[in-house]
Amino acid sequence: xxxxxSNQWHCTSQNEPRGFIQPQSxxxxxxHSGTNCNLRCPFCLEGSKPGDNRIEFLTLEDARxxxxxxxxxxxxxxxxxxxxxxxxxxFIQILDYALELxxxxxxxxxxxxxMNQIGDVLPLRDKPNTLNFRVSxxxxxxxKHDESRGRGNFxxxxxxxxxxxxxGFGVSIARLMLSGEDSASVDRAYTPYFESAGVPLDLTIIKxxxxxxxxxxxxxxxxxxxCMIRYLSAEQRDKFMCNFSKMIVxxxxxxxxxxxxxxxxxxxxxxxxxxxxxxxxxVLLGHHRCYSCFAGGAxxxxx
Amino acid sequence: xxxLTVHDVIFRTDDLFELQLERRATQFEPxxxxxxxxxxxxxxxxxIAAGSGEDVLRFLIRRxxxxxxxxxxxxxxxxxxxxxxxxxxWFRPGRAVAGTRSVFIATGTGIAPFLSYLRxxxxxxxxxxxxxxxxxxxxxxxxxxxxxxxFRLALSQEEVNGHFHGRITGLLEQIPFADDIHYxxxxxxxxxxxxSIWLENHGVAYTxxxxxxFFYEDGQL
Lengths: 303, 221
Prior knowledge:
The complex is a heterodimer of chains A (303) and B (221). With 303 residues, chain A is an alpha/beta fold. Chain A has helices spanning 60-72, 91-98, 112-121, 142-149, 153-166, 183-188, 191-197, 225-230, 234-238, 241-244, 275-279, 288-296, and strands at residues 20-21, 28-32, 77-81, 104-108, 131-136, 170-176, 205-208, 245-251, 254-258, 283-284. The model of chain A has no long low-confidence stretch (mean pLDDT 90). Chain B has helices at residues 68-74, 112-120, 142-145, 189-201, and strands spanning 2-11, 16-22, 33-37, 43-47, 56-62, 81-84, 101-107, 128-133, 151-155, 164-165, 181-187, 209-213. In chain B, 43% of the residues are buried. The A-B interface holds A 36, 38, 49-53, 86-87, 89, 112-113, 115-119, 122, 150-152, 163 and B 1, 33-35, 43-45, 85-86, 88-92, 96, 189, 193, 206-208, 210-213, 215, 219, 221.
């Protein structure tokens, strides 16, 4: 989706200066593995599905180049999302390189692509940095999870979560957050499943609101400079992902830097071809998903 | 995205057909699939059944009621155009560590990746190939598969001389065990789940079980 590149982009529809984040550091560098996925979830914020190439496969060559550059900027962690990262044919090699440098986090649906390659994943335990997996378990109800992800996929993901933990990898889960939910109660509903999988009962649960499909334009409040100062403290502003992270995205054969993990469907957030260049740029909070960060403190990061 | 010309559409039964597309420069490994598109933006992934040395890409497709993509593909004629993704996949029969052996287990059109492997590696036979279908006429490329030294066909809804009558899981006792054997399962999820559990209960490491689930395009099996 192409948004307005004129001066209007710097102002809201009411002609007020748009809120922004001036990035301060590069603590975490995300890589998009590609929108190709073995599943076809109707709510997927990336619109991923089998064979999809809106975002193309990350290559080992590009990954190495950006990891090396990120080291110069003091990066502390590499994280990977998709699509399903294990559909990417070079993903194990990419992880192998990354784990020589920094700890890594992989977001996965923990079904066949990972299950089939777990024999290649196990040796990664011996690398100098830790590898953590965040497994998608959308609801603490297998039937609801499988409605979107396909029959049997809750059970498979849970089993893989348990195996990863037993093999010594760090694990957490991601779930969908429903409006008006009692979050503590929903989190507690996972307990019997965690117990059966043999994972810690206090496992980290990352919650995501409905981010809507890529290219959609839901009506949300616009964020002005005044909003950023009036409603958020400096500490809250620092927690915006675009303050401390970037994401590498491959489109049309070109690998570039985007402002965060949630805005790759809008060209205004393509910040250039190098991390050094991208870090200089102010991130204007004009994407509807920016409002999720503003209103709820949504973050893909695990600190 | 590639736009490929239809080479042929060959019906094996009323519902099962082989779609052949020109290959052009498409590179793939046995087990790879391709997302094929209808004239809408709808697409479905189908495993390649062709060998890596063939001039055409072959797909074994079951036409399902109300299936947008399978019905559109079934109506193609030679010379028509079909949009296709690049090959991709996470199921690689026979690819595990060099020196390992393989057992193949398939139901229905799930035989496609194994046909691709056998056509690409005619000198590398699996230790055993089990194939399950409902009726004898649904057993695709049977003559070719019967060239495998240890091949067994299970027919769940028909009795035919020389073949096992019953579900494919009735043949699991014939599976050999060894530390260097990898087990490749492709087809219906129920078969794959039952077989995976059976293998693990018989001491097979989960790292040596490889799975590819085929769902029909309406999500039903």
